[in-house]
User: Which sequence fits this backbone?
């Protein structure tokens, strides 16, 4: 996210201001998957200790570092057993969308908090502190829009892909078999070549601008 300026004073400050949003985004995203699966009859997340807000349970250190330096990353995925659902297709979709929707709600909440903060003038006597808190809320909102936008993409291992495969009989289409086999390679290739950014950036801008208009 901060590129080669990550070790500059400004870059380090940006990271510190982004940490709350990233931690909440990752933890609540995975917690949402776990709790929805649990409520729909799958005991797997509970048996694996995922019904918790403890960051240590949900954070994947590699994915956490990557989102700081590259703008995309991941947490530890919640394992589920769809055979425990009463309605396989419907419940699988509900579990899949729970994570991204949580990030969207978080982004909305951070932007709304910005509005309250701006109107309150609580730290007007200390402009530096006011700027830090304002930027922290802004960065936290933005990172959760990034997580939402990334996860709705129809690429294997992402929530958007699970929604698509449950909505349609994807076994009929060869393209989905190819995606399953080479999904991670395709994802890395898209990221390295910059194509992923070109796909993501318009989505991020669109969603972020809508939230700003609605809540700020």
Assistant:
């Amino acid at each position: 996210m901060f590129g080669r300026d990550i070790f500059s004073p400004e870059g380090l400050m940006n990271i510190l201001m982004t940490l709350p949003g990233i931690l909440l985004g990752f933890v609540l995203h995975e917690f949402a998957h776990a709790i929805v699966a649990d409520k729909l009859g799958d005991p797997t997340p509970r048996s694996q200790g995922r019904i918790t807000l403890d960051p240590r349970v949900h954070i994947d250190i590699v994915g956490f570092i990557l989102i700081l330096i590259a703008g995309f990353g991941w947490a530890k995925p919640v394992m589920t057993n769809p055979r425990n659902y009463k309605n396989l297709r419907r419940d699988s979709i509900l579990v899949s969308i729970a994570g991204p929707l949580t990030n969207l709600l978080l982004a909305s909440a951070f932007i709304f908090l910005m509005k309250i903060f701006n109107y309150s003038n609580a730290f007007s006597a200390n402009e530096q502190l006011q700027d830090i808190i304002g930027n922290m809320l802004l960065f936290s909102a933005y990172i959760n829009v990034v997580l939402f936008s990334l996860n709705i993409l129809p690429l294997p291992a992402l929530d958007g892909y699970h929604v698509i495969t449950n909505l349609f009989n994807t076994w009929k289409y060869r393209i989905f078999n190819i995606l399953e086999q080479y999904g991670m390679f395709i994802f890395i290739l898209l990221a390295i070549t910059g194509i992923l950014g070109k796909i993501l950036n318009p989505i991020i801008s669109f969603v972020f601008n809508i939230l700003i208009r609605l809540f700020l």
